Amino acid sequence: MTDADVPRCAELEQLLFPGDDPWSAEMFRAELAAGHNHYVTARDDDDQLLGYAGLARLGRRSDPENEVHTIAVDPARQRAGTGRVLLQDLLATADAHGGPVFLEVRTDNVAAQALYVAHGFTVVGTRRGYYSPSGADAFTMARPAPGGTT
């Protein structure tokens, strides 16, 4: 993801998450500026931005961990494998960094949960009222480091 992608990402946020405090362009820019973050985009053959994803590489070198911050795909292009490709990119980056991967997902987002389970995540907790202002609950999911534990 580059600064030039930010307006489209903010536009998709408004479309996808209108009831849950969508990220602004400034928030995306702050994420891009943080040296420990890895943000990517997916594009079609006409170079149109279809989706984006972000990962934070956290922890000390001796005890690394990762957190998926976001994965989003244009509603008109969902269920075509774009989210899977974005997640696979994040997981490859996480594996290179080392450590487990954590994320939050709405408890009613069954499609996203299935994607995460297919990639080795399990539910490790529930965060009541995690999303605001809607108050929707979230599952915390974790994927252990390859050959490791969470």
TrEMBL record:
InterPro entries: AcTrfase_RimI/Ard1, Acyl_CoA_acyltransferase, Bact_Acetyltransf, GNAT_dom. Pfam families: Acetyltransf_1. The gene is rimI. It comes from the Bacteria. It is found in: Cytoplasm. It comes from Rhodococcus antarcticus. It is an enzyme of class 2 (transferase). The lineage of its organism: Bacteria, Bacillati, Actinomycetota, Actinomycetes, Mycobacteriales. Residues 1-146 form the N-acetyltransferase domain. Belongs to the acetyltransferase family. RimI subfamily. This is [Ribosomal protein bS18]-alanine N-acetyltransferase.
